[in-house]
Amino acid sequence: METIKITIDESMKGRIDKILTKQLDMSRTQVQQLINEQHVFVNDKNVKASYKTDINDVIEVEIPDAKNTEILPEDIPLDIVYEDKDVIVINKPSGMIVHPSSGIYSGTLVNALLYHCHDLSGINGVMRPGIVHRIDKETSGLLMVAKNDKAHASLSKQLEEHSVIRRYYALVHGVIPHDYGRIEAPIGRDTQDRQKMTCTDKNAKEAITNFKVIERFNDMTLVECRLETGRTHQIRVHMQYIGYPVYGDPKYGLRKDDQSHGQYLHAKILGFVHPTTGEELYFESDLPSYFNDKLAELRLEMEG
Description:
By secondary structure, the chain is of the alpha+beta class. Helix content is 20%, strand content 28%. The chain is built from 6 helices and 15 strands. Strands 5, 6, 7, 8, 9, 12, 13, 14 and 15 form a 9-stranded mixed beta sheet that branches. A 4-stranded antiparallel beta sheet has the order 1-4-2-3. The chain has a two-stranded antiparallel ribbon with strand order 10-11. α1 (16-24) crosses α2. The longest helix has 15 residues, at 289-303. It is globular, with a radius of gyration of 20 Å.
């Protein structure tokens, strides 16, 4: 069992279930389950989900070890962009976790996929059937899923060879003066906060993000980011590293942001070679409505 320790500061005061939902990147239901099962302690005492924290409270959260739990199909609507006997391309909404993990066994994309079809690849095991790559819970957009092991192997190889086209739209703080940029900074686990990643030379992996400016606003910029590597939180970490954090990002952004939709980061374009036919497939998805609404608001500010 893993234990996570969090010390409350001025910015984190409030209901403990809301605080842990952000800090642990879990749903509120999952956090409340941990609290009800007495895996959450404040100053060494169990508390209720409604407990309101004080400055310097020390929260300890026990994350139970993963169980050989059967992952059950769930009738959750899916936005299917493309499907055949080998692959599915899904347009994932913000707020949905891609696959089950320790303590999280329902409400994920995998649960929805198991309801939709019964022929997902088994290479990544029972917790991640069909999952070739993932995007963060609060990131929306396109990802590909393998329906058999042959397709999975082909798509994984394409990812390793960096031949998969992955382009994201991100709304970031600040006005980027140059039209193009390339960020080469290795990413590893933050030693001060295990829930975060950071640009570091210690226990890090190569990470490369290319970006171009799509539109500038008074104090924000809309950029398209192209990944050459696929590290955890890569775009979010890289944009913060160069001084332009993603708007709405609860981990790497600014506390003043509207975080009700998570980070304004959308996997807009996905392209790969079909594992059986060899056809070059290319998909593009629209930005979520809340993302478009924010852009419209920023354009009005420019006019004013």
